[in-house]
Amino acid sequence: MSADSAAAQFTKDNPFPSQITENRVLNNPGSAKETRHFVVSWTGSDLAYKAGDSLGVFATNRTSEVEELLELVGATGEEMVSPTMLRLEEAILLSDALGSRLSLAKPTAKIVKTLAEKATDPAEQAKLNGLLDPEAKEVLTTFLADHEYADLLAEFPSAKLTAQELVDHMRKLMPRLYSIASSPRMFPQEIHLTVAIVRYETNKRERVGVCSTFMSDRVTVGQTPVPVFVSNSHFGPPEDGDRDCIMIGPGTGIAPFRAFIQDRIASEAKGRNWIFFGDQKKATDYLYEEEWEDYKAKGQVDRLDLAWSRDQAEKIYVQDKMRDNAAELWSWLDGGANFYVCGDAKRMAKDVDAALHEIVAKHGKMDSADATTYVKQLKKDKRYQRDVY
Ligand SMILES: Cc1cc2nc3c(=O)[nH]c(=O)nc-3n(C[C@H](O)[C@H](O)[C@H](O)COP(=O)(O)OP(=O)(O)OC[C@H]3O[C@@H](n4cnc5c(N)ncnc54)[C@H](O)[C@@H]3O)c2cc1C
Ligand SMILES: NC(=O)c1ccc[n+]([C@@H]2O[C@H](COP(=O)([O-])OP(=O)(O)OC[C@H]3O[C@@H](n4cnc5c(N)ncnc54)[C@H](OP(=O)(O)O)[C@@H]3O)[C@@H](O)[C@H]2O)c1
Questions:
Q1: Both 154 and 94 in a single domain?
Q2: Residue 211's domain spans which residues?
Q3: Do both 44 and 71 map to the same domain?
Q4: Does the beta carbon of 347 lie inside 6 Å of ligand 2?
């Protein structure tokens, strides 16, 4: 089968039942983080992906959470349901709906309203009505952020919901996207991922991110089918191998740049590579340290600037390293380099964008309006690309 026909065959609606063949922690002992390297195989099929693409992964929920919900609604899981949000033509088993089709987290105000209508216990009714008070919207927002469906059913036991009523309040469990950390030129039968495993606590209960812990905790390496699809992206290394690349990827943001470097080495691209990476501590969080040091030693990565945020009293971030090297960064940009950013959208990407504007203004000798126009043009020319989440 050709790569193109394989790509067309396996889509979001028809994901490929892959397997994870490697699952290892990238952080050293003592780290506050849990970042894992996964290898996803597509053995026997031509894998059409390119550096810069993402992989969509369909996960299942934790069995313990499904069982808890079944107990709370007094069901066995064998009941047939047709959850509104799934728009199914035929009903499915409740255990399947809760196991892999619906999100058990992030309830909405709708279920609080339903519980308020159904509660028979006066204290529960009073609390639910208090949450629905239009004057106290933030109280409801905070309450919903701390609660999952199981918490609600446990906290308001007098409000009896049938299994069908429960699933009608739930949203579809969506696949999660991960930036691919390998190049098909080096790994045509594998896709590598760099994943931050999500574990936290709310409402005095331990919580987990569905998909990151599905891959880390619930998949048996080489056995469990993992439905995946490639999500093509405009993000990617330049077609012109002579073009220089500046890549800003703290934390898991490093993933696509590992793919870019592999790709540029395999295609013998002559352009220079400048990596900015950062994480909490050098001793424990230098993801793929050996690879980067090796690329640097061989001159395959020309510049490697590292920002360790928690190795000293004050925070040092990738944008600080950009500012420290502003004149040289400007000379790369002015010479035609592409500028890439991957990772946290909320804070990092905004701060890096601000640093870029500053550097362009200062070293390009522009006022702030001209610097803004310059950066806009970089984007239009696809020389400033972001893969942020
Ligand atoms: C294009 C793209 C590329 C991506 N690439 C990567 C990648 O390469 N690597 C990577 O690790 N991720 C990546 N992500 C993020 C990834 O898709 C998932 O969002 C992430 O793994 C979490 O999914 P999950 O199912 O494990 O967690 P979910 O079940 O989705 O849970 C996450 C939710 O838990 C809640 N939460 C998390 N922490 C806390 C806390 N401390 N307190 C309270 N609530 C909290 C928040 O509501 C959060 O939205 C990417 C996303 C996109 C869109
Ligand atoms: N959806 C989820 O639940 C979930 C779970 C995990 C991660 N994420 C997101 O995934 C992305 C990557 O997470 P990650 O664990 O790989 O790395 P990360 O949390 O983004 O941290 C990587 C490095 O970036 C630093 N950093 C923090 N704020 C920054 C800023 N404003 N500018 C530049 N650097 C900054 C961190 O420092 P300090 O931490 O020391 O400040 C750390 O050294 C982030 O968007 C993160 O929020 C989401």
A1: yes
A2: 3-57+178-230
A3: no
A4: yes
Q: Is residue 239 part of a domain?
A: no
Q: Which ligand is nearest to the CA of 179?
A: 1
Residues 197, 94 within the same domain: no
Instruction: Spell out the residues 6+ positions from residue 127 whose beta carbon is closer than 8 angstroms to its own.
Output: 156
Let me know whether 117 and 214 are in one domain: no
In the reported structure, the alpha carbon of residue 368 is separated from the centroid of ligand 1 by a whole-number distance in angstroms of 35
Q: Which ligand is nearest to the CA of 209?
A: 1
**Residue 180 Cβ contacting ligand 1 at under 6 Å:** no
What is the DSSP track for 100-167? IIB--S---HHHHHHHHHH--SHHHHHHHHHHT-GGGHHHHHHHHHH--HHHHHHH-TTS---HHHHH
- Could you tell me the distance, in angstroms and rounded to a whole number, from the CA of residue 363 to the centre of ligand 2? 29
Per-residue pLDDT 10s for the chain (389 aa) are 444 455 557 889 999 999 999 999 999 999 999 999 999 998 766 668 999 999 999 999 999 999 999 999 999 999 999 999 999 999 999 999 999 999 999 999 999 999 999 999 999 999 999 999 999 899 999 999 999 999 999 999 999 999 999 999 999 999 999 999 999 999 999 999 999 999 999 999 999 999 999 999 999 999 999 999 999 989 999 999 999 999 999 999 999 999 999 999 999 999 999 999 999 999 999 999 999 999 999 999 999 999 999 999 999 999 999 999 999 999 999 999 999 999 999 999 999 999 999 999 999 999 999 999 999 999 999 999 999 99
Instruction: Give the β-pairing of 338-343 and 245-248.
Output: parallel
Whether 280 is in the pocket of ligand 2, judged by its Cβ within 6 Å, is yes
263 and 291 belong to one structural domain: yes
Residue 77 CB partners (closer than 8 Å, separation 6+): 66, 70, 93, 94, 95, 98
Does the predicted TM-score (pTM) go above 0.90? Answer: yes
| Number of domains comprising the chain | 3
Ligand 2 centroid–CA 249 distance in Å is: 10
Question: Which of 138, 168, 198 is where one domain is finished?
Answer: 168
Is the same domain home to 258 and 382?
yes
Q: Is 315 in the pocket of ligand 2 (CB under 6 A)?
A: yes
> How far does residue 297's CA lie from ligand 1's centre (Å)?
34
One-letter amino acid identity for 245?
Answer: C
Report if residue 173 sits inside a domain. Answer: no
Question: Is 344 near ligand 2, meaning CB less than 6 Å away?
Answer: yes
